[in-house]
Amino acid sequence: MAEFIPVGSFDIVIFGGTGDLARRKLLPALYHRWADGQIPEDSRIIGISRSEMDDKAFRAFAFEACEEATPDNLSKSEWKKFEKHLHYVAMDATKPDADWEELKKLLTIQEDRPLVFYLAVTPKIYVPICEALGNAGLNAGASRVVLEKPVGTDLASARAINEGVGAVFAEECIYRIDHYLGKETVQNLMVLRFANSLFEPLWNRTAIDHIQITVAEHYGVGDRVGYYDGSGALRDMVQNHLLQLLCLIAMEPPNSIDGDAIRIEKIKVLEALRPITAEKAGRNTVRAQYAKGAVQGEAVPGYLEELGEKSGTETFVAIKAAIDNWRWARVPFYLRTGKRMKDRHSEIVVQFRETPHSMFGRVESQSNRLVINVQPDEGVRLYLQIKEPGPGGLRIKSLPLNLSYADNFLVRYPDAYERLLMDVVRGNLSLFMRREEVEAAWKWVDGLLEAWDEADVPMETYQAGLEDGPVEARLMLRRDDRDWWEA
Ligand code: BG6
Question: From atom 8 of ligand 1, which residue's Cα is the shortest distance away?
Answer without folding.
Answer: 236
